[in-house]
Specification:
Layout (H helix, E strand, L loop, with lengths): L2 E5 L2 E4 L4 E8 L7 E7 L6 E6 L6 E3 L7 E6 L4 E6 L8 E8 L13 E2 L3 E6 L1
Parallel strand pairs: 2-11
Antiparallel strand pairs: 1-3, 3-8, 4-5, 4-9, 5-6, 7-8, 9-10, 9-11
Length: 124
């Protein structure tokens, strides 16, 4: 049974940092692209970052490039999203998701498995 569980969200002031974790089980992380997505109230869910397994490549949403870093620890079956210099516009529910075809894409249609999300709130 595939499971993804996010943690690490919370309330932080603008300029602060958070590290999100995505603990996975039920599949081999070695074979999957893992993506982080976010959804603010009334907004479409958007891809923030992803990590492709086959070549280690990463991809970022333009607005988080240079501030967020995705990493993975396959031995721990966990993927992380380090978020620095947070801004109020980063406020959203953050989800991790798994793409079994390892596409390395930020298109949410590529992802079959999803976690329940963790709330990130950045105050100004």
């Amino acid at each position: 049974q595939v499971q993804l569980v996010e943690s690490g969200g919370g309330l932080v002031q603008a300029g602060g940092s958070l590290r999100l974790s995505c603990a996975t089980s039920g599949f081999s992380l070695d074979d999957y692209t893992i993506g982080w997505f976010r959804q603010a109230p009334g907004e479409v869910r958007e891809g923030v970052s992803c990590s492709r397994s086959i070549d280690g490549s990463t991809l970022y949403l333009n607005s988080v490039e240079g501030r967020f870093t995705i990493s993975r620890d396959n031995a721990k079956n966990t993927v992380y999203l380090q978020m620095n210099s947070l801004k109020p516009e980063d406020t959203a529910v953050y989800y991790c998701a798994a793409d079994q075809y390892d596409s390395g894409s930020l298109h949410r249609g590529e992802y079959r498995y999803w976690g329940q999300g963790t709330q990130v709130t950045v105050s100004s």
